[in-house]
Design brief:
Layout (H helix, E strand, L loop, with lengths): L9 E4 L3 H13 L6 E4 L2 H9 L15 E4 L8 H10 L8 E5 L4 H9 L4 E4 L4 H18 L5
Helix pairs in contact: 1-5, 2-3
């Protein structure tokens, strides 16, 4: 977890601890995980972004540069989190990468309808997963020019 006033660069919202650990490991390997927050469900993500619940009092002007968002999560699913983020003026420009195991066409279509910036199906093999996350982090953290 970051210190209270640290800049948040990546918000990872993932309930599967194995996938979260692999994602963080791949980002750390490329020195892209220094300012990363990992949350385990959609409700925590909403609370974090809008300074509610356990995150009440958090500086909500400190928004992540990118959100890596799983779809199938407890409490609030990823599509509902995406909807909430994109409907709010203070968060709608944050790039959101859907990082999920779902290849289902309705999930892909709905994610893009709601404003996802990218939709990536998690590779099944370890090396593919590590490379995919590394490439993803490199693009969104170093190459992409964020309007925020």
């Amino acid at each position: 977890m970051l210190a209270e006033n640290s800049e948040v660069e990546i918000l990872l919202v993932e309930d599967n601890m194995n996938d979260a650990e692999l994602t963080i490991r791949a980002l750390r390997k490329n020195k892209l995980a220094n300012n990363l927050i990992h949350l385990k469900d959609g409700a925590s993500a909403i609370d974090f972004l809008f300074g509610k619940g356990e995150f009440e009092g958090r500086n909500i002007n400190n928004m992540p540069k990118v959100i890596l968002l799983d779809l199938k999560m407890p409490k609030i699913d990823g599509l509902e989190v995406l909807r909430n983020i994109k409907l709010n003026d203070s968060t709608k420009r944050i790039p959101i990468v859907i990082l999920t195991s779902s290849k289902e066409s309705p999930d892909i279509e709905k994610a893009y309808q709601l404003g996802a910036n990218s939709y990536i199906v998690k590779p099944v093999d370890f090396d593919g997963f590590m490379k995919g996350i590394s490439d993803l982090g490199f693009y969104w953290m170093l190459l992409n020019q964020n309007p925020i």
